[in-house]
């Protein structure tokens, strides 16, 4: 998979790609990530990429021309499965969306700043809009990093068996069951006997029951959730 990220702040977004599982996936060439500094496509030598909004009001808006120049350059080089804009006024990212995007070959992620991007950017280029939650961040870089992490860990070969994504929360509309490791007893807290029994069918059943119990208590909405990917 190739991911092209368009940003006004490349240094802000690079770090999550330089560590741990994401870095290893890049080293193993399972994914390529390219950062594009919007200021390199600025209108003038002073790096102009934003302007006041028509109609007045606080906050600058990212202009269409620099984004158009950057997108056009990328479109001339390859076809993209999705052109994504990170924005709080979109449907919230969920595991189904991450699953679907993980099978894409090439995607562009546009990150906004200030008041966001000129609406015509969204109308002309964007095929999918993604929010990471009902709150407003200063810029789309951290949101894009969250989306990339959620997608990349699902690409076959990225996770080893020991961290299989299939047993994580949300894969089957359930939260994950509790997990324990050594010691088997700490203060007065004991690991449930069943996990020490070696009876794997019963352990599977226990994990499923605990997952259902936890989901009913914390996220009952998931149990009636049969859609939510678009
Ligand atoms: N004026 C916009 C609004 O009210 O919907 C908010 C703009 S926000 C200050 C600047 C940028 O941060 C957005 O263009 C977007 O790229 C990013 N951003 C902020 N919150 C986000 C969220 N919850 N999910 C995804 N991106 C977000």
Q: Do you know the CATH architecture of the largest domain?
A: 3-Layer(aba) Sandwich
Mean pLDDT: 95
Number-wise, the strands total 9
- Find the CATH topology of the largest domain: Alpha/beta knot
| Number of structural domains | 2
Helix content estimate: 25-40%
Give a concise summary.
With 230 residues, the protein is α/β, with parallel strands linked by helices.
Describe the fold and architecture.
The protein has 230 residues and is of the alpha/beta class. It folds into 2 domains: 151 residues, 3-Layer(aba) Sandwich (Alpha/beta knot); 61 residues, Orthogonal Bundle (Trp Operon Repressor, Chain A), CATH 1.10.1270.20. The chain is 31% helix and 16% strand. The chain contains 7 helices and 9 strands. The strands form 3 sheets. Strands 2-1-6-5-7 form a 5-stranded parallel β-sheet, sandwiched between helices. A two-stranded antiparallel sheet has the order 3-4. It has a two-stranded antiparallel ribbon with strand order 8-9. Strand 5, helix 4 and strand 6 form a beta-alpha-beta unit. The chain is elongated. Bound molecules: S-adenosylmethionine. S-adenosylmethionine binds next to loops.
Task: Throw out a few tags for this protein.
elongated, 230 residues, Alpha/beta knot, 9 strands, single chain, five-stranded parallel sheet, binds S-adenosylmethionine, alpha/beta, 2 domains, two-stranded antiparallel ribbon, Trp Operon Repressor, Chain A
Write the layout of secondary structure elements.
Elements: E1 2-7, H1 10-14, H2 20-27, E2 32-37, E3 50-52, E4 60-62, H3 64-77, E5 82-86, H4 95-101, E6 106-111, H5 119-125, E7 128-130, H6 141-152, E8 185-186, E9 189-190, H7 200-218
Parallel strand pairs: 1-2, 1-6, 5-6, 5-7
Antiparallel strand pairs: 3-4, 8-9
Bound molecules: S-adenosylmethionine.
Residues 86-89, 111-113, 115-116, 131-133, 135-140, 143 line the site of S-adenosylmethionine.
